[in-house]
Amino acid sequence: MGGEGRFFRLALPLLFLAAVVPAGALAAAGRFDGLYGQDPYAYYDYAVGPLRASLLHLRPPPAFYWPPGYPLLVALASFVVGARPLAGQIVSLVAGGLAAVFAALLAHEVWPALDARGGARARLYGPLLAGLAVALCGQVWQSSVVVMADTAGLAAATGGAWALARYGRRGDSGGPGWLVL
Q1: What tens digit of pLDDT does each residue of 86-97 get?
Q2: Environment class of residue 147 by beta-carbon count within 10 Å: exposed (0-12), middle (13-18) or buried (19+)?
Q3: How far is CA 150 from each of CA 60, 100, 118, 142, rounded to the nearest angstrom?
Q4: Poorest-pLDDT segment among 6-20, 56-70, 114-128
Q5: Is the Cβ–Cβ distance between 91 and 74 less than 8 Å?
Q6: With contact defined as beta carbons under 8 Å apart, do 108 and 127 qualify?
Q7: What distance lies between CA 18 and its chain's CA centroid?
């Protein structure tokens, strides 16, 4: 990877910020706390209530209707920012930014298979366009400020697809780490 690769790596944090900053600014300007509808309240109440208590007492997580991954992240964030809805919004915002970065990384990984001519510009701009399409998507901004698992699920799925594509291109030469991820 030459200059294009260096530029691509430098552009990834900008993609992250392109998703996080506008969404966070809109939520802050409107003083939106991320609790809209019954699902965000359920996630929030579980994360900062029984789940947080079980973590403090080193007990297994209590039963919950949905998988506990997102509430676990919210509970962990609540140890830093306090038991406030902001903990859930931070998790959702970070996940929205990661979804944009993972989309660019996934496109970068599969682009050689799509670009028969092997053009360096296409290999650079195509993945960045894919990342921008996610970063500037209104639905991602909206989901990034609500205390819900939507962007966390999107980031996990996109990150998993990227890791699988990376493992598929490198096979065993990259070790099983990418496949495990």
Answers
A1: 999 999 999 999
A2: buried
A3: 24, 14, 35, 10
A4: 114-128
A5: yes
A6: yes
A7: 13
Please, what's the b/e burial string for 60-71 (b: 16 or more CB within 10 A of its CB; e: otherwise)? Answer: eeeeeeeebebb
Which residue type, as a one-letter code, is found at position 99?
A
Element (H, E) at 70: helix 69-81
Instruction: Quote the radius of gyration of the chain (alpha carbons, Å).
Output: 18
Closest by CA position to 85, among listed 151, 26, 28, 20: 28
Q: Rounded to whole angstroms, what are the CA distances from 63 to 34, 50, 67, 159?
A: 23, 9, 9, 27
Q: What is the mean pLDDT of the chain?
A: 88
The amino acid at 181: L
- How do residues 7-54 score in pLDDT, each as one tens digit? 888 899 999 999 999 999 999 999 999 898 899 999 999 999 999 999
Q: Structure pTM?
A: 0.88
Q: Within a 13 Å sphere around the CA of 146, how many CA atoms are in the beta-carbon half?
A: 17
Collapsing DSSP to helix, strand or coil, 2 comes out as: coil
Question: One-letter amino acid identity for 30?
Answer: G
